[in-house]
Fold this sequence. Notes:
The protein is of the alpha/beta class. The chain is built from 25 helices and 18 strands. The strands form 5 sheets. Strands 13, 14, 15, 16, 17 and 18 form a 6-stranded parallel sheet that branches.
Amino acid sequence: MSSKNRLDPIPQPPTKPVVGNMLSLDSAAPVQHLTRLAKELGPIFWLDMMGSPIVVVSGHDLVDELSDEKRFDKTVRGALRRVRAVGGDGLFTADTREPNWSKAHNILLQPFGNRAMQSYHPSMVDIAEQLVQKWERLNADDEIDVVHDMTALTLDTIGLCGFEYRFNSFYRRDYHPFVESLVRSLETIMMTRGLPFEQVWMQKRRKTMGEDVAFMNKMVDEIIAERRKNADAIDDKKDMLAAMMTGVDRSTGEQLDDVNIRYQINTFLIAGHETTSGLLSCTIYALLKHPDILKKAYDEVDHVFGPDVNAKPTYQQVTQLTYITQILKEALRLWPPAPAYGISPLADETIGSGKYKLRKGTFITILVTALHRDPSVWGPNPDAFDPENFSREAEAKRPINAWKPFGNGQRACIGRGFAMHEAALALGMILQRFKLIDHQRYQMHLKETLTMKPEGFKIKVRPRADRERGAYGGPVAAASSGPRAPRQPTTRPGHNTPMLVLYGSNLGTAEELATRMADLAEINGFAVHLGSLDDYVGKLPQEGGVLIICASYNGAPPDNASQFVKWLGDDLPKDAFANVRYAVFGCGNSDWAATYQSVPRFIDEQLSRHSARAIYPRGEGDARSDLDGQFQKWFPAAAQVATKEFGIDWNFTRTAEDDPLYAIEPVAVT
Ligand code: HEM
Ligand SMILES: Cc1cc2nc3c(=O)[nH]c(=O)nc-3n(C[C@H](O)[C@H](O)[C@H](O)COP(=O)(O)O)c2cc1C
């Protein structure tokens, strides 16, 4: 019998007395049930969970509105709240207002940044090699349990990159005891639903969970204590643990304590391994079902990695696997391993052009599985697997916030770059070596735990013949060419044209490029000043030029550019920058499609709107592909135009020995 709909006009499925919708939800596959309900009830509906409403949203217009972090914030409730038993106030399970969230977020941006990824690459290759070696040694008839092996891969990778620990999953029959404890605990957490008398029948499970948590904490605490004992070793290490033990939060000057570090490590193991293994497993499934896409994937891998399976793929080669990345993104669309996330309004709100009222604190679930099938975004056949959905053009055209497998805003996944690099590398190495065989003609059956992944998915593999992958005779991008012997650049006679080089940078990429530009400008006779954007709020020079290089973080400026960006957004006079001549280069990552290059774009637009003159069009560097290469193309061209602009008459000739610094010709006019 259905009672009066309290949140009308938000639709609600029929309820039962007292329990509301609580017991009608398929407890083994709640997300898939909700996804079916979204098809029936539309882009927004709500469930009565024994008196507490959960509003389920999947229409992209509404999700777009709910992605406004000034109005809505992540909420840690339900199963996620219970995950705190293992994750404590680690990043994933902390409330945004808890001091340890922002402290850890600030400290962990660096070990999850692009530069750090490059240093983890060899460890990622190490573990991926263990996987392919295991597969190479199988007999022709041996089956591979895909999820098992992908979980072994992702767990061992995060163990090694995170805290130099080898779980050695490929050398044991069962998972490492830590993983057994983690999985058992997560199962108990997922089974707990807050029903009356649940405590009684779950008593045994809860006792086991207490023991499991104590065991996990002890193991991680010992790893931390071991590192603390040898203080010198901390400085030598380049893993996430070292970054957490030494990192200082810029805004508070504080460090993480050891209990919080333990929770972060537990968190990386929870958030980091099942998700990426689900992604890889679903991707392999999709490839088996789409031979045409698989063929293109083989072509790309053969082209980029080449035929030599003994040559370790380089970091740069992995970034060139653009079609593989499109495939991975499309798999994240159809089978997002983290299929939903929770938010709530910071004040009473109305969404949907005034239609739906949501009270402060209401639990809202963004149902990513259904959002990713919204036909108004993905077309009339949203279930079709099509990597072209993630071509550059398609991504640029798509409305923002239509693809959210990594969550939203500042609370989005910090491990996104890590996961995508790891997955592209592993898939590349698998395809370089193996033919995949779908001997079971497996049909997707998703198992839901904290994440979603295929259940009972087995394949067989056969080594690919050399002739099959020899088509290109060698990789397009050979292993990095190795360091060149440094040569002393020749300095131009000074003409002392002022050149201000400004950066906005959290993790050093933009700062490093800015420093190189400044060095080069100085060598070419400019009177150079280098500083952060925030150092120059209200004082852009009217003479000479201004070169700006800036990153974005979830659409917001880096810490040392926030005041500058705020100032540019103020109500400035139309001609505020009438005599300023500038060029902007953005460091970004197109994985953040909705806010890709948003801050450098804003800076460029505001300067030009207030009468500054761009001496060269804004450049974009994409850390997802080849940021350094894009910068190398942009900068010499910008420099050449700048030279003309400032009427600098060079009579300067370089000798053949001059090092072109960053593979760029110094700004000589020919
Ligand atoms: C394909 C792989 C992955 C997917 C689909 C994924 C998905 C997500 C999602 C949806 C969130 C937001 C959750 C929420 O709003 O409640 C999240 C947060 C998070 N993820 Fe991932 N994740 C992946 C891989 C990783 C990896 C490899 C790591 C670490 C090594 C990681 C660490 C985290 C952490 C620490 C958070 C919390 C961030 C914060 O709130 O500050 N994830 N992830
Ligand atoms: C947590 C996080 C959020 C990011 N958000 C964006 C974004 O919204 N838009 C974008 O273009 N790039 C984004 N990026 C990519 C960075 O801007 C890019 O890696 C840049 O090179 C970092 O520069 P930095 O090292 O100077 O701080 C993000 C990176 C991280 C780690």
